[in-house]
TrEMBL record:
Catalysis performed (reactions): (6S)-NADHX + ADP = AMP + phosphate + NADH + H(+); (6S)-NADPHX + ADP = AMP + phosphate + NADPH + H(+); (6R)-NADPHX = (6S)-NADPHX; (6R)-NADHX = (6S)-NADHX
GO molecular function list: ADP-dependent NAD(P)H-hydrate dehydratase activity; ATP binding; kinase activity; metal ion binding; NAD(P)HX epimerase activity
Keyword terms, alphabetized: ATP-binding, Isomerase, Kinase, Lyase, Metal-binding, Multifunctional enzyme, NAD, NADP, Nucleotide-binding, Potassium, Transferase
UniProt-listed HAMAP family: NADHX_dehydratase, NADHX_epimerase
Name this polypeptide is given: Bifunctional NAD(P)H-hydrate repair enzyme
EC numbers, comma separated: 4.2.1.136, 5.1.99.6
Cofactor note (record): Binds 1 potassium ion per subunit.
Family matches, as PANTHER family: ATP-DEPENDENT (S)-NAD(P)H-HYDRATE DEHYDRATASE, ATP-DEPENDENT (S)-NAD(P)H-HYDRATE DEHYDRATASE FAMILY MEMBER
Subunit structure: Homotetramer.
Cofactor: K(+); Mg(2+)
Organism the protein comes from: Endobacter medicaginis
Highest taxon above the source species: Bacteria
InterPro entries with a match to the protein in the record: CARKD, Nnr, Ribokinase-like, YjeF_N_dom, YjeF_N_dom_sf
Length: 492
């Protein structure tokens, strides 16, 4: 993976490292000017209160105030406390000669818009009532960097954080802009260029990206006709095995159908029992009723989906056989239940796809609350512990590699919270692994294709009534759009 810089997500510590070696005064001026422009695009002229903190976030605020006033808007500045003497922020504060206001909720309530330049993303402690009360009184809010109190590394709120209508990120977004609850607190996110040279990123050890085409590349979906036909051809496109349950057959079917639509040449359901159930319908699906121990040694069936619809005991047995045979395994659902509290049992699998409840059970977290999205470091630690890619599913899916890289998915529609959607994801992932795509890239691409296909299904025909079966038919279009987007962005 050669990740493009535009998709990089920077933690506050990484930004601080950039700033320590850069022209902060010039960047602060650019940040304030570009933020003012974004505000001018989003709102009609109105009285503005710029709330400034003591650090560089406040410094940006003084610049915003100057540029909005120059544009003819009535502007007042309220300072929480003065910037440190000699700092870039103090230089910007000295250039503000317009009206000032007390740092009180009443001042915010009287304005038509409040600019939140109180704190940036690297807050060390919770925001206090003085800040929270003023921001809560704002009729509308534009936040610089992040809404004050939002932790840019984790997306968690430190104290009472007022949601912004517009958040202006500076040159690069942060993990916290996309992780819940941060994503919801940011409102519309705009990333503005503040002139930091891209070379500044070379000195950082980047480890987080937004999941989008360009982070990974896909081979063509359609078979290469020059590569020959027949069985060798089917296998060269990637053969996937799906472990079938004897009773709950829907999940394996969904996974298998998605693997086929995602370009696998051949998909087999391994059904030692219940084979007849799988043989009805889906004429292109191969059903193999021979003992699983014989099937797993077929060297052509490289990638296996283990878990959808399976009782934990069956999934656990199948997992053992697959790992012993050295197969590439995607462990989901029943296979995760089989490893509850015993993550080491997953060692040897390539990708695991838990939702938050399954993550908690496998990796021993007690919290399954919906706003716990598995902070990036915990997902990283889980991936490291089992030596496999962990896909923590949710509306802000986090994909972590054992080496510490993470990608955060940003545009999955809420309709994905539907029964069977996870089975579809594991099938897509299986197809990509079988095509020989690297584990982390396969997981990231599968998550994006899955979300994008669901978006297409929603806009195409199904609306908010999207069900799992609607997703796979859109994978071909999603695949083509991934190619088009990667190409367009590469051209600039
Ligand atoms: N490379 C970039 O992205 C650039 C970022 N800039 C700005 O720089 C900001 C970061 O600047 P700073 O590191 O100065 O951070 P802040 O502006 O968030 O300020 C931190 C200051 O607030 C104090 N503080 C922290 N938590 C507090 C709390 N709960 N209650 C009261 N005081 C508290 C700290 O002691 C420190 O003095 C970014 O948010 C951005 O707006 C630009 O000015 C320049 C370039
Ligand atoms: K802010």
């Amino acid at each position: 993976m050669t990740a493009p810089n535009r998709l990089a997500l920077l933690t506050p510590a990484q930004t601080a490292a950039i700033d320590s070696a850069g022209d902060v005064l010039a960047w602060m001026e650019n940040a304030g000017r570009m933020a003012a422009r974004a505000i001018l695009r989003h709102w009609t002229p109105r009285p503005v209160l710029v709330a400034c903190g003591p650090g560089a976030n406040g410094g940006d605020g003084y610049v915003v105030a100057r540029h909005l006033e120059r544009a003819g808007w009535p502007v007042r500045v309220a300072a929480l406390s003065p910037p440190r003497e000699g700092s870039p922020a103090a230089a910007m504060a000295a250039r503000w000669r317009g009206p000032i206001a007390l740092f009180l909720p009443e001042a915010a309530a009287r304005a038509g818009l409040v600019v939140d330049a109180v704190f940036g993303a690297g807050l060390s402690r919770d925001i206090d009532d003085r800040v929270a009360d003023l921001l809560a009184a704002a009729p509308a809010l534009a936040a610089i960097d992040v809404p004050s109190g939002l932790d840019g590394a984790t997306g968690l709120a430190k104290g009472r954080v007022r949601a912004a209508d517009l958040t202006i990120a500076l040159s690069w977004a942060r993990p916290g802009h996309y992780l819940l609850p941060g994503r919801a607190l940011c409102g519309t996110l705009e990333i503005v260029d503040i002139g930091i040279p891209p070379a500044a990123l070379e000195r950082l050890e980047l480890d987080a990206w937004r999941n989008a085409p360009g982070l990974w590349t896909l081979p063509p979906l359609a078979p290469d006709t020059a590569a020959g036909g027949g069985d060798s051809h089917k296998y060269s496109r990637g053969a996937v095995g799906v472990i079938g349950a004897a009773e709950m057959t829907g999940a394996a079917r969904l996974a298998a159908g998605a693997a086929r639509r995602a370009g696998a040449g051949l998909v087999t359901i391994a059904a030692e029992s219940g084979a007849d159930l799988y043989r009805t319908g889906d004429p292109g699906l191969i059903v193999d009723a021979s003992p699983l121990s014989a099937q797993v040694v077929d060297p052509r069936r490289l990638a296996w989906v283990c878990g959808p619809g399976l009782p934990p005991a069956q999934a656990g047995e199948a997992l053992k056989l697959l790992l012993k045979a050295g197969r590439q395994v995607i462990a989901d659902a029943g296979a995760l239940a089989a490893c509850a509290g015993r993550p080491k049992r997953l060692r040897g699998v390539r990708i695991v796809t838990p939702h938050v409840g399954e993550f908690a059970k496998v990796f021993g977290r007690s919290s399954t609350s919906p706003d716990w999205r598995g902070r990036p470091d915990e997902v990283r630690a889980a991936a490291k512990a089992i030596g496999a890619v962990v896909v923590l599913k949710g509306t802000d899916t986090v994909i972590a590699a054992p080496d510490g890289r993470i990608a955060i998915n940003t545009d999955a529609p809420p309709v994905l919270a539907t029964a069977g959607a996870g089975d579809v994801l594991s099938g897509i992932t299986g197809a990509l692994l079988a095509r020989g795509i690297d584990d982390f890239d396969a997981a990231c691409a599968a998550v994006w294709l899955h979300g994008h296909a669901a978006q297409l299904a929603r806009h195409g025909r199904s609306g908010d009534g999207v069900i799992a079966e609607d997703i796979a038919p859109w994978l071909g279009t999603a695949w083509a759009e991934a190619h088009a987007l990667a190409r367009r962005k590469a051209l600039g």
